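User: Here's a chain of 79 residues. Predict its fold as tokens.
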Amino acid sequence: MTMEERIMERGMEKGMEKGRIEGRIKGLKDAIELGLELKYGVKGLKYYERIVDITSIEKLEMIKEAVKISKSLEEIEVL
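Assistant: Prediction complete.
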């Protein structure tokens, strides 16, 4: 494999990893949005507007789990 091929392969791998991360973030946001809408209606969707700019997978996972077990929107808002 030539140096040029290795560089191209590395670039493709980085691009694919970035795509996986972006896809994971989108999937988490979609799940959170759906959960908030189903559980809390319009109020839940208003809260979702505060989540849109979050890019941390760990934070989004935490919010998703909180939506699943929460009994009120206030329990999620503290996150």
